[in-house]
Design brief:
The chain is α+β, with helices and mostly antiparallel strands. Helices cover about 30% and strands about 25% of the residues. The strands form two sheets. The chain has a five-stranded mixed beta sheet with strand order 1-2-7-5-6, covered by helices on one side. Helix 3 links the parallel strand 5 and strand 6.
Length: about 160
C-alpha cells in the first residue's frame, strides 16, 4: 500500500518543498481535526506555471491548466504536511476550491478542477472523494492562472 508520499511518486509527481508565503498568512492552519490551506498557486521552484503561455485560461490553454491545478494541489499537500508532519494523517479530503483566472466566455473551470480532483482520487482512493467548487475569476494574486484551497480531516493523537 505505501505512504501517501510514495503514492504521489507513483503518479509521476513529487511532493514539493513548502513555498514561502507571499504575505502575512500561514500556508495552512489546524483547527481541531481539520486542516485548512491558504490559496496555493501553481508554483514550481518559486515560479508560476503559465498554461499555454497565458495567465488567463481559455479553451486553448485548458489542458495545460489541468496540469497547473495538479501542481497547485501538490503545493497544498505540502502546506498540510507542514502542519501535520505527515500526509498519512489525512483521513478524508473534505473540500477543494479552485479559482481560475478565466478569459471572457470560458466556462470550463470544472474541467480544470478535474485535474486536481483526479489526482486526489489516485493518491487517496475513497478518502480522496470530496466536495468541490470551481470558480471563474477576473484576476488572481501575482497574475496566477489559478489558485487552489483544500480542507482535510486528519487523525491526531489524543494528548
Amino acid at each position: 500500500m505505501g505512504t501517501v508520499e510514495e503514492k504521489i511518486i507513483t503518479t509521476g509527481f513529487m511532493l514539493p518543498q513548502l513555498s514561502t508565503a507571499a504575505g502575512l498568512y500561514s500556508p495552512a492552519i489546524r483547527s481541531g481535526n481539520y486542516v485548512y490551506t491558504s490559496g496555493q498557486l501553481p508554483l514550481v521552484d518559486g515560479k508560476l506555471i503559465e498554461p499555454g503561455g497565458k495567465w488567463k485560461i481559455d479553451d486553448e490553454s485548458k489542458e495545460d491548466a489541468v496540469y497547473a491545478s495538479r501542481i497547485a494541489l501538490l503545493n497544498a499537500l505540502a502546506a498540510i504536511k507542514s502542519v501535520t508532519g505527515t500526509l498519512d494523517s489525512i483521513e478524508r479530503i473534505v473540500k477543494l476550491t479552485l479559482y481560475v483566472a478565466s478569459e471572457r466566455n470560458f466556462s470550463g473551470q470544472h474541467l480544470v478542477a478535474n485535474g486536481a480532483s483526479s489526482l486526489l482520487h489516485e493518491i487517496f482512493g475513497g478518502r480522496g472523494s470530496h466536495a468541490r467548487s470551481a470558480v471563474g475569476v477576473a484576476e488572481l494574486p501575482l497574475n496566477a492562472s489559478l489558485e487552489l484551497e483544500l480542507i482535510v480531516q486528519c487523525k491526531f493523537p489524543i494528548i
